[in-house]
Amino acid sequence: MSAIENRIEELGHRVPAAPKPVAAYIPAIRTGNLVLTSGQLPMAEGKLLATGCVGDGGLTVAEGADLARTCLLNALASVKGVIGDLDRIVRVVRIVVYVQSKDTFHDQPKVANGASEFAQAVFGEAGAHARSAVGVNALPLDAPVEVELTVEVAD
Hints:
By secondary structure, the chain is α+β, with helices and mostly antiparallel strands. Helices cover 30% and strands 26% of the residues.
């Protein structure tokens, strides 16, 4: 097991098997020293962990943040499927978090912190990244959160 996977286990989680695509795309692709993932949903063992909006009577911000962390774990699984060993990640470059929410909800950054803080806990300084937190009115399968990840990898 890689040092990164050991660190993830120390934090109380594990890298799952990469989720299967739910449409016509591949989970991750490498170009040069970058690996970009497709949007990853909060899936575990082939099932969506929650549905609906975050905030305004739906899921709480804390629940959304937990789901964003799950999405990041799935993104890391997809990266592992391309590079084989997560220890080859030298930098988390960018995380994009989409949050299904109503027009009156404005805490998308707090939801996105679930993914961002976890990346930094796992990778240390190399986990500091650029980020967007975007509110949307719908996501695939009625998922509350979707995460895209870009990492730089060593050859």
